[in-house]
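Budget justification aside, the reviewers requested a transparent look at the raw inputs and outputs of the sequence design task funded under Objective 1. We therefore reproduce one unedited record. The lines immediately below are the structure tokens for a 180-residue chain.
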């Protein structure tokens, strides 16, 4: 299960930067999750993603709390552009590992996923993740055949699609979305 949280990362001091993530959540294991959707991503985006991770990680500890209470923070970046052209796969996963001993991890508390939509290939045996990514590229378009195929026998996507349809049926919500 996942609980959606307030997307604002509040400033600790008046000179600190206020950031707003797209989706902030906590899963049933207490892991914090930041989901970002980005149309155009430059290498500066990598700094922003790391900054958001750091803010979410740091906000877990209040005065008098111990470091052992810290939970992992996972960033998921859904990108509608190529951020790492040198990597062929659409899904890259970034962690902290020792430079010369790749299997030795410093901590499992930092994981950043980059999902680059342009690298997604058509597949008859698409994984659940590939179906989710395809959904985001098809939703709102007039290609109902592709949408129906994605939704077929996929209850989570059917629920999301139903929520999307309800959202878009509201004139107020649709106008706010279009203005953004």
């Amino acid at each position: 299960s996942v609980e959606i949280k307030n997307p604002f990362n509040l400033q600790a001091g008046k000179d600190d930067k206020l950031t707003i993530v797209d989706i902030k959540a906590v899963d049933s294991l207490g892991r914090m999750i930041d989901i970002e959707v980005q149309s155009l991503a430059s290498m500066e985006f990598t700094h922003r993603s790391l900054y958001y991770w750091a803010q979410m990680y740091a906000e877990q500890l209040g005065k008098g709390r111990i470091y052992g209470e810290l939970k992992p923070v996972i960033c998921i970046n859904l990108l509608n552009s190529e951020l790492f052209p040198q990597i062929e796969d659409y899904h890259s996963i970034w962690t902290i590992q020792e430079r010369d001993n790749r299997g030795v991890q410093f901590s499992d508390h930092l994981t950043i996923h980059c999902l680059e939509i342009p690298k997604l290939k058509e597949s008859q045996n698409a994984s659940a993740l590939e179906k989710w990514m395809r959904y985001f590229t098809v939703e709102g378009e007039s290609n109902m055949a592709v949408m129906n195929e994605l939704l077929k026998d996929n209850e989570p996507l059917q629920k999301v699609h139903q929520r999307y349809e309800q959202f878009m049926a509201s004139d107020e919500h649709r106008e706010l979305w279009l203005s953004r």
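The first strand starts at residue 2 and ends at 5. Helices lie at 43-58, 128-138, 144-151, 155-169, 171-179. Computational costs for records of this kind are itemized in the attached budget.
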